[in-house]
Design goal:
2 copies of one chain form a homodimer. Chain A is elongated and about 55 Å long. Chain A has 2 domains: about 140 residues, Jelly Rolls, CATH 2.60.120.10; about 70 residues, Winged helix-like DNA-binding domain superfamily/Winged helix DNA-binding domain (Arc Repressor Mutant, subunit A, Orthogonal Bundle). Helices cover about 45% and strands about 25% of the residues of chain A. The first copy, chain A, starts with a helix and ends in a 10-residue tail after the last helix. Chains A and B meet through strand 4, strand 5, helix 4 and helix 6 of A and strand 4, strand 5, helix 4 and helix 6 of B. Chain A binds a DNA duplex (30 and 30 nucleotides) through helix 9.
DNA sequence: CGCGGCAATTGACATTTGTCAAGTGGCGAA
DNA sequence: TTCGCCACTTGACAAATGTCAATTGCCGCG
């Protein structure tokens, strides 16, 4: 691993407050792996052996039920995933695969649990990170149960626009993935975009333009208790 | 608070491993309150001031979006709620109200955070509890996105039957609440029950009988990665 | 015992979402 | 540049879910 990779990871909320030797030990025993797109990194139902940190690229977390499948989230640099399974030494509830060429740091689960025993600041950061993930998941449930597909799309677009500070968005992944992330089929996503056309949303390929954000917000009714980044 | 109430709370996974003085301090500063049915205990968007422990009765956690409302979970003795908001000193994402006459122990959020700083065993228990809640929420998302209403009902019934160790279930709350918990309207729940009739499910008021659990399971396809208690 | 109130059910219909099939169009490889 | 692949879109239809209104039926109170 390059020194500046280590620096970026060190700056993550999860690691920023850890003691130097804690962080060094975690990084020392970790593997940094490169993967091409489309590679399955972990499978639902496997034992949680590693905490994963996406250093470069893009990783999709998804879940299956029989032949059905849904995208749970997209992890981009620098983000971690499946912390909860690692901590409780349980099995993964979600699978993961690369969407792009990616670099992933894999920290042995055992080392993470060890570090919690010896470094109170790290433990505190774990608690904060867990609570954050928990609340994100609760928000996700709220969105799924309380909103229609078009509303979820509208709010997703508004949030993206806010993050990019512009009325023009470039989708960071295929619409097929977005539809699954929002809990609908690709066909239904197309129709949702058609609905939003009446609220000033136009799309040309992966580039989406929000002509009238106020009008879109009136339709979407964004709510920090559902949409916030947490 | 009666001594045996304290004992039950002490036996919770969250408190079982805490040091004696940690637990004593938490209980000493806590309020034990009694509420009639239908009382709102907390509101979405309020600051997280207390960790709540349901000592007796039944509490419904729910969330709203505009005029829409959905039940997020039901907490029964002895269970805690809104741990995540308390830990990160954030606002509540969910509201809570009593469904029955209830007793609730309210522990000041500040004390909980203090205790984490001084008692490593307690902190470890908090991590475990948080991870558990996180995983429960992930499972909830999976169920909502991957299953139909009738499937969610079928799996809920199977899980209940397993917990009660019988083919006969008595609903612990109104069907109206169950429908909202499962993410559907009361009307739709009635229809879901009608569908399950063909799989051996009969209901007489609040008493549900599963005549053929194997047949019901064939329809429901229970999955420990979605249904498990976590 | 009868009545009132309310949860639950049922039917009719609207909306949302999914499925299947047939285009359409953009983008990379030759 | 052209071709072909593949993501995306569109239309037609089916299934799931929501809404509204009427009815049933249970339960507790008088």
């Amino acid at each position: 691993m390059r020194p500046d990779d280590a620096a970026v990871i060190r700056s993550l909320p999860l690691f920023a407050d850890a003691r130097e030797e804690t962080f060094a030990e975690l990084v020392r025993t970790a593997f940094l792996q490169r993967f091409p797109p489309g590679v399955t990194l972990i499978n639902e139902n496997d034992e949680a052996d590693f905490l994963h940190v996406v250093v470069e690229g893009q990783v999709e977390l998804f879940a299956t039920f029989g032949e059905r499948e849904t995208t749970m989230s997209i992890v981009e640099p620098v983000g971690t995933f499946i912390l909860a399974a690692v901590l409780n030494a349980r099995i993964y509830l979600q699978s993961a695969r690369t969407l792009q060429k990616s670099q992933v740091l894999m920290i042995p689960a055992e080392k993470v649990r060890d570090a919690m025993g010896t470094d109170a600041a790290f433990t505190r950061a774990v608690v904060t990170e867990l609570a954050r993930g928990y609340r994100r998941a609760v928000k996700e449930v709220k969105g799924q149960k309380l909103r229609t597909g078009a509303e979820r799309l509208a709010n997703w677009l508004l949030q993206r626009a806010e993050a990019e500070g512009a009325g023009r968005i470039t989708l960071p992944f295929e619409k097929r993935v977005l539809s699954s992330l929002l809990g609908m089929t690709p066909e239904n996503l197309s129709r949702a975009f058609a609905v939003l056309k009446t609220h000033g949303v136009t799309s040309r390929g992966a580039v989406i333009t929000l002509a009238d954000r106020a009008a879109l917000a009136a339709f979407a009714r964004p709510d920090p208790l559902i949409d916030g980044p947490e």
